């Protein structure tokens, strides 16, 4: 039976009874649910394959499969053109019943009893919009979301949860079909905003951003990569409320996060739409689609106001970190960690990422990391905190006890890890 472990960021990773990492299958990611002022359930809208939630990150669903090797392959490069098939998308409708009927409470939608087919986005609606395919190599998974073009040279605005955990990112400009490698410039996990930069991009058409604000009752359309198919769809509705505060939460867990000052809409925003634009009748972006109701008979989608998101994006582009804004990629040791107590105080190693600094230093499954730079680490969480204080490219002096009981030390050069 698989039991939870954590990676060097302190996030859960499944291992079997023998301690071997269990890579999840590619799947339709389970939606994160939550509460609006103690009422309706919500879901963040990143698309993944179906399966039960056992896995790499505490707030995102994963599914377990057969036991894998203790050596996890380095992600390497992500080749544009790889990845996801394209096709039609069926979106949740407004059928009766939130607790019964086909599609009710499923991972693929917002819990409506029946479904309708959302139309493909028009050429005008596709302008300035990208689809985002993320490879999560350390967990043998892949995800899909949406983004908004901010500049002609490839600055992309999206949700943090669209790229969280990604080892490589492919971004497709939907107006041209051209794919690019995307790199994370920075993130604000608290406000669920991320900025990407496309490699070797030029001549892109930025999205038109609203400057007037939006009003309750105003007609809006959510454009996004619904279901992760790679085909943009358009869900129409109207603004039903402003300044909303919601708490999101993973399926089957009590963990959650609070998002504030959101636009609420009755447009059928669904999984895969995350990071996509909510546009007004003039085709101007008024918000970023971020969350939606789940298991409720009433549709409720939520978007971050575009002025707030752009303000955060400008801070990220300036390279100035804050309490919530992080620039670039975090330092990565390259080990999978178990939280369980062992015979030696420290952070038990359940697996090592092939090609990582830890692998090059000689760490192996069954070892226990006991110190970083001469300071004792008593647990996996303490090791995670010590590593997070460093930048990629920096070196740390690591102490560990091998499975055979030998005491070792070594210098480990930290590499770039996926953003959290």
TrEMBL record:
Alphabetical list of PROSITE patterns matching this protein: PDZ, TRYPSIN_SER
Keywords: Hydrolase, Membrane, Protease, Transmembrane, Transmembrane helix
Top-level taxonomic group: Bacteria
SMART domains xref list: PDZ (SM00228)
One BP annotation, GO: proteolysis
UniProt-annotated stretches for the region Disordered: 1-26, 65-122
Membrane-spanning residues: 35-58
Residue ranges, compositional bias (Polar residues): 65-80
Domain PDZ: 309-398
GO molecular function per UniProt: serine-type endopeptidase activity
SUPFAM superfamilies tied to this protein: PDZ domain-like (SSF50156), Trypsin-like serine proteases (SSF50494)
Biased composition (Gly residues): 94-112
Transmembrane is among the record's keywords: yes
InterPro entries named in the record: Chloro_Bact_Ser_Proteases, PDZ, PDZ_sf, Peptidase_S1_PA, Peptidase_S1C, TRYPSIN_SER
PANTHER family reported for this sequence: PEPTIDASE S12, PROTEASE DO-LIKE 8, CHLOROPLASTIC
Protein name: Putative serine protease HtrA
Gene that this polypeptide is encoded by: htrA
């Amino acid at each position: 039976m698989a039991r939870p472990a954590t990676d060097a960021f302190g996030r859960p990773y499944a291992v079997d009874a023998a301690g071997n990492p269990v890579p999840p299958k590619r799947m339709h990611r389970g939606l994160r649910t939550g509460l609006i002022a103690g009422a309706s359930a919500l879901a963040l809208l990143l698309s993944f394959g179906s399966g039960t939630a056992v896995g790499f990150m505490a707030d995102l669903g994963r599914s377990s499969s057969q036991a894998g090797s203790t050596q996890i392959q380095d992600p390497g490069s992500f080749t544009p053109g790889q990845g996801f098939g394209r096709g039609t998308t069926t979106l949740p409708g407004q059928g009766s019943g939130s607790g019964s009927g086909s599609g009710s409470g499923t991972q693929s939608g917002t819990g409506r009893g029946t479904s309708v087919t959302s139309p493909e986005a028009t050429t005008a609606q596709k302008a300035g919009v990208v689809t985002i395919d993320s490879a999560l190599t350390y967990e043998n998974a892949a995800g899909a979301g949406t983004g908004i073009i901010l500049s002609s040279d490839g600055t992309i605005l999206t949700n943090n949860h669209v790229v969280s955990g990604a080892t490589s990112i492919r971004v497709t400009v939907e107006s041209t079909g051209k794919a690019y490698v995307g790199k994370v410039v920075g993130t604000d996990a608290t406000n669920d905003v991320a900025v990407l930069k496309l490699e070797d991009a030029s001549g892109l058409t930025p999205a038109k951003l609203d400057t007037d604000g939006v009003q309750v009752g105003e007609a809006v359309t959510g454009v996004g990569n619904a279901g992760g198919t790679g085909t943009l769809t358009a869900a129409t509705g109207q603004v039903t409320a402003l300044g909303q505060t919601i708490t999101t939460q993973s399926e089957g867990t009590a963990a959650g996060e609070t998002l504030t000052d959101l636009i609420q809409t009755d447009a059928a925003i669904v999984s895969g739409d995350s990071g996509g634009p909510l546009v007004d009748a003039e085709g101007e972006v008024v918000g970023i689609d971020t969350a939606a109701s789940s298991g409720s008979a009433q549709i409720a989608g939520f978007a971050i106001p575009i002025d707030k998101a752009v303000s955060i994006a400008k801070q990220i582009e300036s390279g100035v970190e804050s309490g919530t804004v992080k620039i670039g990629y975090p330092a990565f040791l390259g080990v999978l960690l178990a939280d369980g107590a062992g015979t030696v105080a420290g952070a038990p190693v359940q697996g090592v990422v092939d090609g990582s600094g830890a692998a090059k230093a000689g760490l192996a499954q069954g070892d226990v990391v006991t110190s970083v730079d001469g300071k004792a680490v008593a647990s996996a969480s303490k090791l995670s905190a010590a590593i997070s204080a460093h930048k990629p490219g920096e070196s740390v002096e690591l102490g560990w006890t091998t499975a055979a009981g030998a005491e070792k030390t070594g210098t480990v050069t930290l590499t770039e890890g996926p953003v959290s």
